[in-house]
Amino acid sequence: MSNTVTIPESMLPRDGRFGSGPSKIRPEQVQALDAGATKLLGTSHRQAPVKQLVGSIREGLAQFFTVPDGYEVVLGNGGATAFWDMACASLITRKAAFGVYGSFSEKFAIEADKTPFLEKPEIFRSEPGTYRLPELTEYVDTYCWAHNETSTGVATPVKRIPGSVEQGAITLVDATSGAGVLPVDISQTDAYYFSPQKAFGSDGGLWIAILSPAAIERAYALEESTKLEGARRWVPAFLSLKSAIDNSRKDQTLNTPSVANLIMLENQIRWLNDNGGLAWAHARCAKSASLLYQWAERSEYAHPFVEDESARSTATVTIDLDDAISAKQVIQALRDNGIVDTGGYRKLGRNQLRIGVFPSVEPSDIVALTKCVDYIVEHL
Ligand SMILES: *Cc1c(COP(=O)(O)O)cnc(C)c1O
């Protein structure tokens, strides 16, 4: 049974949530729900109050990411997973190329592979703990990879594949756990998309995409093409990026959103911008991450999983433990003490801790966490 080790109260982090998504939601975000209780919750998303909330989210994100002229912040229901299917229906013309180096980068590639009206995708694969970007390939019109591979703790560069623009191709970057932490030049992407339950410390179920004029044009053209006689493409209403764009321009979503989630998200974006935006968030997360990596380097029983230091994520930190110490036991003992979601990605199956060091997490709590892990390992 549980409670193998009791950590002294004084050593515990102030907040014990270290998940890689869902991740810590700040108490102020929950208070914002209370403040919006009668004005927003339980009211129509087609009326001014909720539309203003969505407008504030779109403007706040445009500011946070220093979005270039002509780019638009678009949102809809379903999370990043829904956006993958939307991209298959509404963004990939014929054939995509993928960098695949973990579970999340692979999932999108699998969807494209199964889409009956697309060619089989080109896959550029590397081992978990490393990354590989897609390479320039003839006939490819869409290049895809993940900014942060959440299953392994690997961060990648976001830079267009040379030659891809000349080819007329667009670049889609899954930024679900990287957005809000990793520096990014949005002009290097055509869709920089994410769900808000990671760095934006909200709930799941929503996707947000920052779209370039080329991506918007592509979405409209592909939907138009379905009207041609003999067209094989199918764009179901829910996967129509065109209708998501049309709705977002009116500060709405195609179907009913979680208003509570919008309130928490709006609060988080304002908090981030008020503190100094992406530069501040990045510095704060980099500090938390380096506290963990340095602790692991010093430790006799732990070491960073990702060997290439430049690819080590500052959003989700993966730390291998020596075989003599059971990560499973450590994770359970942490949980018994109220420190939760420190486990590695299930399917990766390593003897590993994985810590989400998103902006909401206090670096001082990361220090406390490392001490708690040491304490558990000493006392197990
Ligand atoms: C969490 C995650 C997803 C899945 O997000 P959902 O909101 O559950 O669809 C996709 N990609 C990456 C990189 C993630 O970290």
TrEMBL record:
It is found in: Cytoplasm. Residues 139-340 form the Aminotransferase class V domain. One of its GO terms (molecular function) is L-serine-pyruvate transaminase activity. SUPFAM superfamilies: PLP-dependent transferases. Residues 1-24 are annotated as: Disordered. It comes from the Bacteria. The modification N6-(pyridoxal phosphate)lysine is found at residue 198. Homodimer. It is an enzyme of class 2 (transferase). This is Phosphoserine aminotransferase. One of its GO terms (cellular component) is cytoplasm. Pyridoxal 5'-phosphate binds at residues 80-81, 104, 150, 174, 197, 255-256. Pathway: Cofactor biosynthesis; pyridoxine 5'-phosphate biosynthesis; pyridoxine 5'-phosphate from D-erythrose 4-phosphate: step 3/5; Amino-acid biosynthesis; L-serine biosynthesis; L-serine from 3-phospho-D-glycerate: step 2/3. GO terms for biological process: glycine biosynthetic process, by transamination of glyoxylate; L-serine biosynthetic process; pyridoxine biosynthetic process. It catalyses: O-phospho-L-serine + 2-oxoglutarate = 3-phosphooxypyruvate + L-glutamate; 4-(phosphooxy)-L-threonine + 2-oxoglutarate = (R)-3-hydroxy-2-oxo-4-phosphooxybutanoate + L-glutamate. Coiled coil: none annotated. The gene is serC. InterPro entries: Aminotrans_V_dom, Pser_aminoTfrase, Pser_aminoTfrase_mycobac, PyrdxlP-dep_Trfase, PyrdxlP-dep_Trfase_major, PyrdxlP-dep_Trfase_small. Its cofactor is pyridoxal 5'-phosphate. Catalyzes the reversible conversion of 3-phosphohydroxypyruvate to phosphoserine and of 3-hydroxy-2-oxo-4-phosphonooxybutanoate to phosphohydroxythreonine. Belongs to the class-V pyridoxal-phosphate-dependent aminotransferase family. SerC subfamily. It comes from Bifidobacterium thermophilum. Binds 1 pyridoxal phosphate per subunit. Keywords: Amino-acid biosynthesis, Aminotransferase, Cytoplasm, Pyridoxal phosphate, Pyridoxine biosynthesis, Serine biosynthesis, Transferase.
